[in-house]
Amino acid sequence: MTSSNPAAEAAGVARRCAVVGGSFFETIPEGGDAYLLKYILHDWDDAASLAILAACRRVFHSEAKLLIIERIVGGPNDGLETKTSDLNMLVSPDGQERTADEFAALLANAGFRMERIIEVTPRLSIVEAAPI
Known about the structure:
- By secondary structure, the chain is an alpha/beta fold.
- It has four helices and eight strands.
- The strands form three sheets. A four-stranded mixed sheet has the order 3-4-8-7, covered by helices on one side. It has a two-stranded antiparallel ribbon with strand order 1-2. The chain has a two-stranded parallel ribbon with strand order 5-6.
- The protein is globular.
- The relative contact order is 0.17.
- The mean pLDDT is 87.
């Protein structure tokens, strides 16, 4: 289902984008050059996150990029706020924050390679991935 987007219309970009409803466990719109998942994967355990990434991978062309905006769990005594968020995610919705290695493994299992992590703030990073 496609619908109008007043914010896109106000910004003058409505002709270049579409709002599409659906379930990211089943299908993702095809043809994109970049796909953005912001605070999505941390809501889900590895099995559900893998299903989301697999749906993305099915529609990716060789040059497409996946951008995942999440918190990255650091080493011991590093990033108390992210570790506290991880505890909250484990207790409430069965999600979790992940380390860089955990993201790399999850992405590899879905047919992606992690290209880099860009720290945006001490609490927020962009994981950039491409199809294998």
